[in-house]
Every structure is written in C-alpha cells, then in structure tokens.
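Dear U.,

For the methods section draft, I wanted the exact inputs and outputs in one place so we can describe them consistently. I've listed the two proteins in the order they'll appear in the manuscript figures. Please don't edit the token lines directly; just add comments below if something needs changing.

First protein:
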Amino acid sequence: MIYLTALLALSGPAFADDQRFLASLRKLEPQTRLEQICDYTVMSRIDRDTGQEADRAKSDVTSRPSHSGDAITAKGGAFRSKGQWYALSYVCQGTPDHLHVTSLHYKIGSTIPESKWASLGLWR
C-alpha cells in the first residue's frame, strides 16, 4: 500500500495531465479522437526512440489519413521538432473507444523545407 501511494504521489502531475487529456478526447467524435490519440502517441514514441523532442504531429499534411475500424493509416503526416518539420507516415491501431493505442508503426521522412510550410498549413 505504501508503494502504491508513493508511486501515485510521484506520478501525480503526469497522471492528472493524462486524465485531462483523456477527458478532452472523450468530447471528440470517434474518428477525430483516433487521429488525436495516434498523433499524441507517435510524438511520444519519436521522443523515446530518437530523442528528437517532437512537440506537434499532424496526420493530414499532404494527404488525408485513411480509417478502417479502429485503425488509421497516415501516409502524408508530419511532426515538428525544435522548430523544424519532418515528413511522417504511420499505421496506428486503437482500442474500440479510440482512447488508447494498441500498436503503432511509424516512419520518419525527410525535412520539410520552410518554403513549403505555408502551403501545407505548417507553422514555426
């Protein structure tokens, strides 16, 4: 019991942030919810796997993602790291409520030149 209490105390702010994020996701329609949880998860995975400090991801930069049930395939996405945008594609499987990701496979592409940002809806 003491271990659980200590663990919860140490994770308090992060846990609260996660709960607020999940509460905001619940307000979205299911397709948008799936895109948001997948974008959020791919940013976390990029941080963990590459150390690139992704702070924004979009699944629909050069093309709309395709949905199939609880899965999304984003071939024309992008993510931002340290003020620079990079091409991104991923396949993401979510839970039936679209609040969690069960599998994610992603590929980072090339740097997107700043001269193309405005036409793609990207920003600094």
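Second protein (the one for the lower panel):
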Amino acid sequence: MSTHHSPLRVAMVGTRGVPAHYGGFETAIEEIGSRLVERGVDVTVYCRPHDDERPPRHLGMKLVHLPALRLKAGETLSHTALSAMHMLRGPKFDAAFLFNAANAPFLPLLRRSATGVAVHVDGLEWKRSKWGGKGRSYYRWAEQASVRGADALIADAAGIASYYRSEFDADTRLLVYGAPEKGNLATDKLGAAGLVPDGFHLVVARFEPENHVEQILEGYRNSKAQLPLAVVGSAPYAAAYTERIKTLAAGDKRIRLMGGVWDQELLSQLYTHARSYLHGHSVGGTNPSLLRSMGSGTAVLAYDVVFNREVLGPDAGRYFDGAAQLTGLIEELDLDKGLARAMGAAARERAQAAYRWDDVAEGYLRLAKDLAGGSSTRNARARRNPDSRWKVHGPERPATLRGAMPESAPAFAHPPTASEPRPAADAAQTRTR
C-alpha cells in the first residue's frame, strides 16, 4: 500500500517579494523559490504591493500581498509583522526563511507558524552611515536576537560566516547567490537610453556612502575616458548624498544619471553590453549586482574589500580602494577593448563555476528538510563576544581588509553547500565598512 506524502511547505518572509523588481533578496527568492517549486515544494512568498500588481502566483509560487508603512525604519518591520500574523491563521509551515536580521523581533511568532525558521542575516547593516546611533544599536541587537531565536542562520559569504562565528560562536549555513548563466544579447533598449553596445561604463548601486558611488564618479571625472558612464540607482532616504552625486554628474557631460531602472530587460542589456562594470559595494556579503555583471561577461572593477575578493577571486577582476586608483583602471579599459573582453570572459567563467542558482536552490532545499525534521542551532543564551574588535564607532576601514583574501577564507571554486565544512576566517581580517 502506497503512502501519500504531502509536499514540503515553505514560507519566504521579510522582503518586497516577487516578481523581482528591486534588490538582491527579491531576485534570490525568485530564483530559489521557482526552483524549489520545480522540486515539488509548496512555496509561499509574502510580498509588498508593487504598483497595482497583485498576481496570486508567480513561477509556481503562491503570493500573499500585504501593505507596509512607507517609512525608512518602518517599511520592512511593518510588513514582516503583518506577514507573521497572517501566517498564524493558516496551517503550519514546515520551514520559514526570514530575510534580514532586522526582522528578528518576529521570530517568536514565526516559530509558532513553522516547524523551523532560518534567518538570512544579510551583511553588516549596522555599518551603513544612513543609520544613526539608535539604528546601529538596533541592528547590533537584532544580530544577537537572530542567533538566539532562529533555528538556523544563513550567511551568503565566508566573511559573514566568520563574523557570526567570531561574535557569537554561532554556526551558519553558507548559501551564496547565483549568477545569470549568460548575458542578454539584445540591444534594442540601449538605443532608447542613448547608449551603444560596448560603448559605455556602468555603475548600478543605491546611493549610499558604503557603495562609493561618489568616489567612482570622482575617479571617472578625473579620467580621460571617452566612453560615457551610465549610473543606475537612487536613494529614497539619502537626499544629501544624492545631491552630491547630482552635483558631480552635472560637472561632466560624460556622466549620465539614469535613476532607478525597474525594466529588467533594459537592466540586463546594460550589464551585458557595458565596457566595464564599476562595483563600489563594501558592507554586504555576496553582492547580486556583482554576480549579474560577472554572469553577463562584463569586465569588473571592484572596491577592494574581502567580500568582493571572495566573489571575484584573484583573476576575475581588478580592485581599487580610492578614486585616484580607479582613474587609471578606467582609462586602461576605455582604451583596450581586448583587455575588457578577456576580463569579462574570466569573470563569466568564475560565475558559471562557482555561483549557480541550481546549486543554491539545492542548499535551501536541504536546509528546509533539516528544519522540517527538527534540526536547530538556536542558542537562547548567546551573547556578543565581549572582546569583539567589531565596534560601532571603530575605525572606518581597518588596514587588514586590504589586499588578498585571508588564507583562512580562500576564494573557492565551488561555494560550500549546507553539508560541507564552513570556512573559519579570522574576524580581524574580514572586517569591512
């Protein structure tokens, strides 16, 4: 007599949801969730409404649309609170994936709604200058609350795994992001944007100091580059920084501010057909924009922090730590199309070997099954290391962060999966801003 097994029921909570219009979390949910559905998992995604879109399903995932307060500090928390309460109304989930450690206050509710809850802790959010003292203290508290309340922690980079090991002696699952398998060969939308294939450099970033858009613009302005610089991004809660970006751009006709680009087809064409992609992010873990450029086969110039070196490795990109150094790198690629193509090919090869969405989805599936089976690393007594060298008001950029990857956290050909050993990088070598 055959036994019927109900499909694994998984919830994904704490983001803007899908279809993916905005950031890395949303893209990850779209890519991972759709693959889990293909593997027979019942996936529910909690979404914030985007314009007038309220689709009940997307790529096989069930969607629940709930409102959110449009406030800098309240949008994510208000939506997650409503999501957690909504989850209590239905059958219990086998596993819930909560994105962003800031949502830690809702872990008790979520643990009543799911057999096991994993928190994707994201990057070192408290290091972002947009947060004042109270905001930074909250994020520091939320990290500890995640260790105490979650059944598993997900880190998307070895540097983040190292941080939680050093700070809380906490285990993490190292589950990275994937890269697109190939670039977009179409060019029809570039013309409408006033650009031509292989005829521009590209920046895609929110306008925040930690993403170094201002430094990138300064480096480009000081260069003799002939190709224009397309700048994609905005910052709804950083008016002063945005004004500085606009001022820099206004002084150079080569710089083209495109604002936020929600058209994914256009964005894909921009990544694929840029001469180079300039990546200034410094406080996250594995960055989806960086992976997207690599998968598109575009030459990468990246800000020199351990997270970016972990993704690119020693040979798939070049690094800068200031505007002056970037100037020369831009000029070199502006003049040498062959070099740009060779760098892009190396970046794509690394992305295809090490950052595959199928592998990432398998890691999430294994974790979901573990959570459904009662596995938990939760430590209700966890405390931050009193001897921590990660200080809220410490040095902005420790010297140990520059240069090559730490020997204890090497770049790897294939990121460790949930069942493989975690890197144990020394925290002093993986600090970032």
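Candidate sentences for the figure legend, describing the second protein: The CA atoms of residues 59 and 116 lie 24 Å apart. The two ends are 59 Å apart (CA to CA).

Thanks,
Y.
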